Amino acid sequence: MQLNRPLAVVTPTLDADVLAVLARLDAPFTTGGLHRVLGAHSEEGIRKVLNRLSRQGIVDAQRAGPAFLYRLNRDHLAASAVVELANLASTFLARLEQRMARWESPPVYAAVFGSAATGTMTPQSDLDLLLVHPDDVSREVWDEQVDALLTDISRWTGNDAQLLEFSAGRLAGAHDEPVLADVLQHGLTVAGDRDWLKRKVRG
């Protein structure tokens, strides 16, 4: 799946991208406004999609001068399903947080990084995960937890999970690690404190 295009899991069309924006942002949009948010597709294509979705009743269309304003009809029977799909990225991050919070040996810090964090995923993208474990962790316990999580991530998303792992001590002064710089710039924290990581890496 693509966390940046969550409704593509059911339909890889412009309809899915339009619905995702309307579901995440509970506000009225003109065709041009949606075009600017999407950053792709033609205004004419977006207009055709909005007209089709309006006929289905899932999108409300209201005239405002020479233009129309469109927003998701949240009373529609399908609206709750659309909203849930549109928020798959936050659901995924929350599930990671909850899972690791229950670990016998939780990470000192964890973050999703790479294309999942920058919004550039493709269906074939790996899901990149940074895990920092305590220096005195039991390797048996830790490895068992991590292996189960990586399997679950693949089951949850259909994407392979790729792990970057550090001990807390090894992070000290590791400011020349390009991947850690990427995590600090774009990473989505799911355990621990981002400021702690920043202090550690910068020594």
From TrEMBL:
InterPro entries recorded: NT_sf, Polymerase_NTP_transf_dom, WH_DNA-bd_sf
Keyword Transferase: yes
One Pfam family named in its UniProt record: NTP_transf_2
Domain Polymerase nucleotidyl transferase: 105-146
GO terms assigned for molecular function: nucleotidyltransferase activity
Sorted UniProt keywords: Transferase
CDD domains: NT_KNTase_like (cd05403)
Protein's recorded name: Nucleotidyltransferase domain-containing protein
Organism, scientific name: Pseudonocardia broussonetiae
